[in-house]
Amino acid sequence: MDMNPLLRFYVDNKKYLPGILTIVGISLASGVLKMLAAAFWGKAVDFGLAGLVNDMLFAAALMAVFILLDGARTAVHYHIIGRITENMFVEVRARAFRKLTHGEPSVLGHHFRTGDVATRLNSDIDLLSTFSAGHVSNFSRLIFSGVFGLLACIFMSWQLSLAYVVILPLSLGLVSVISKPIQAQSKRSMDDAGEAMSMVADVITGSLTVKAFGAQKHFQQSFDQAAGELYQLAVRTEKLNRRMTGVKYLANVVQTMCLFLVGSWLVTSGRLTVGAFIAFVTMSNYITDAFSQSDYMFSTVRHVTACAQRYYEVIDIPDELPGLMGLPVDEELACEAQGLSFSYDRGSRVLQGLDLRIRAGEKVAVVGPSGCGKSTLVRLLCRFYYPEEGSLRLFGLDSSDWKPDALRSRMAIVTQEPILFDGTVYENVAYGRPGLTRAQCQAVLQEVELWDLVSSWPDGMDHPIGEGGLSLSGGQKQRLCIARAMVKEAPLVLLDEATSALDLETEREVQKGLDKLLRGRAAVIIAHRLSTVRDVDRIYCMEEGRVVEEGAPAALLARKGKYYEMCRLQGLVEVEE
Q1: 3-state secondary structure of 422
Q2: Would you call 94 helix, strand, or coil by DSSP?
Q3: pTM of the model
Q4: Which of 221, 271, 427, 491 has its CA 20 to 30 A from that of 403?
Q5: What is the average pLDDT across 445-449?
Q6: Straight-line distance from the first to the last Cα atom of the chain, in angstroms, rounded to the nearest whole number
Q7: CB-based contacts of 198, cutoff 8 Å, min separation 6
Q8: Which secondary-structure segment (H or E) carries 488?
Q9: CA torsion angle 250 256 259 262 (round to 10)
Q10: For 117-135, what is the mean pLDDT?
Q11: Sign of the four-CA dihedral 455, 460, 461, 465
Q12: Phi and psi dihedrals of 42, rounded to 5?
């Protein structure tokens, strides 16, 4: 049987368990101190009724001491729990974030959306933190106070305690059964909230497209539907909470009635003193407090368990295969694929029996219609996915033998959509080479013809470019991505339709930077515009995951096959009469 996610959470953070158990132990002390304070209160009343003033004052003084000790315990309690949970959740968040950076890319890409992952790493972990920092101590204090109160009540009068012993277990059992569906409902509610957040992220990042295509109504309806489902789940959860509250209220009324009816009879019959009855009533309040919070405690535990379950759905993403160390590499052969086949989720084959060979310094273009597997090939070369059949060797080693970081340090990639980060120009270029000097950054910006723009800003390379390079044009973004790739000085460059989203004039500007990037390096160029691959050494023409033609550009044109037809459709060759 799988371990309860919340229990697993604390087992995985076992180095903090001594501190958490200390907190629970301090909560136990609270129950003892409250029991002693109530007992001496009752004694003070009995001594006062008997005219024993000194004894009454002594008992009252002891009661005051125990109350003060309980107050001091509270201060120590919150000091300790603050230190423990702060350190604990720094590690918890770091562990979850590390999984996003080191987890298997194929799982991350296919099973998680941006907004949902953000919710898991923020809201869900915040709820776990709140539970650990506040609810664990508060709930344990209530439980221990109730338990010690019940034990003291049984010791003072077993007859009067029957009102609790009989009714309490039955009520708690009903509350537990009623609260059971809350965990599943909370899990589903948080999943739906994550989907809604992903929808919000899509609308924000694609706001211009949404407005341009008049899709506001569609997204509004989708969001309203998600919000409606969240509302229905909240209503069902609230109904369960009302049932638990009803059971709790009925039990409290019955307990109170039994307490005063039986208590009055015991006092008048001489079986119980007035002071003992007052102490009993005081300690029974601790029992009542614990029971009155039982519905909240059960629902909170169920809800937080759902948070822990969502947290572990991220944590349980497998890490990338570690690869091997110390193996010799072949610097002369950048890439060699033989019989390479691949499919997503074991569905239809995206690549089928692909053969590919790229030597050091050789420029190879991969062309073909959309959906033929070009971008999938790039993902395999980057070791984001692994071949299902055949072999893929990079610099002489099988792709699975490479340590991911070691392999990717030998690659630079420029994609169709420029990926930039909120920060300065310098910071975005320096991602390509940690420790990049400002002089090196200036030199590469000059290479890609961005220095005139950057130097015109008052803060120069320290100019913030905004989220995703918001303050830059499309061509400027792409040239900044090229600069980042250039400083990496990797022996293999991957260009995934790097100019297809640009107009012809901007493409020519960006192409100058690409030419400088590719100088002396092996390259795999995924291209839709065939005008950009006329000067490559070899072209692989793909269709439905297979290579249907291979050769130098001039030879393929002379063959008048698939590549020739593609060039003719793009107006790159004249149609013979």
Answers
A1: coil
A2: helix
A3: 0.66
A4: 427
A5: 87
A6: 75
A7: 113, 114, 115, 116
A8: helix 474-488
A9: -80
A10: 77
A11: negative
A12: -60, -40
DSSP state of 383: T
Quickly tell me which residue has 């590390």 as its tokens: 98
Alpha-carbon distance of 126 to 406, in angstroms, equals 35
- What is the per-residue DSSP string for 180-248? THHHHHHHHHHHHHHHHHHHHHHHHHTHHHHHHTT-HHHHHHHHHHHHHHHHHHHHHHHHHHHHHHHHH
**Burial of residue 53 (number of CB atoms within 10 Å: 0-12, 13-18, 19+):** exposed
Beta bridge partners of 551: 539
Instruction: Give the neighbor-by-neighbor strand order of the sheet with 349-359.
Output: 349-359, 333-343, 389-394, 397-398
**Closest listed residue to residue 299, CA positions, set 252, 247, 249, 241:** 241
Question: Is the confidence at residue 473, as pLDDT, over 60?
Answer: yes
Determine the Cα–Cα distance for residues 165 and 151; give it in Å rounded to an integer.
10
Read out DSSP for 287-318? HHHHHHTHHHHHHHHHHHHHHHHHHHHHHTSP
pLDDT of amino acid 209: 45
Q: Which residues contact 310 (CB under 8 A, 6 or more apart)?
A: 120, 124, 187, 190, 191
Question: Region 62-69: what's the mean pLDDT?
Answer: 84
Encode pLDDT of 72-93 as tens digits.
777 777 777 767 777 788 888 8
Instruction: Inform me whether the pLDDT recorded for 394 exceeds 80.
Output: yes
Main-chain dihedrals φ then ψ at residue 365, nearest 5 degrees: -105, 140
- Residue 333: half-sphere exposure toward Cβ, Cα within 13 Å: 14
Tell me the average pLDDT across 57-68: 84
* Cα distance between residue 401 and residue 399, in whole Å: 5
User: Residues 98, 386, 419, CA angle at the centre, nearest 5°?
Assistant: 55
How many helices (H) and strands (E) in the chain?
22, 10
- List, in sequence order, every residue forming a beta bridge with 516; answer none if it has no partner: none
What CA–CA distances, in Å, run from 116 to 124, 226, 237, 564? Answer: 10, 13, 21, 46
Beta-bridge partners for 364:
524, 538
d(C-alpha 505, C-alpha 499), whole Å: 11
**Length reported for the chain:** 577
Site of tokens 């008052």: 458
Contact assessment for residue 103 and residue 319, using Cβ atoms and an 8 Å cutoff:
yes
Percentage above 90 pLDDT, the chain: 2
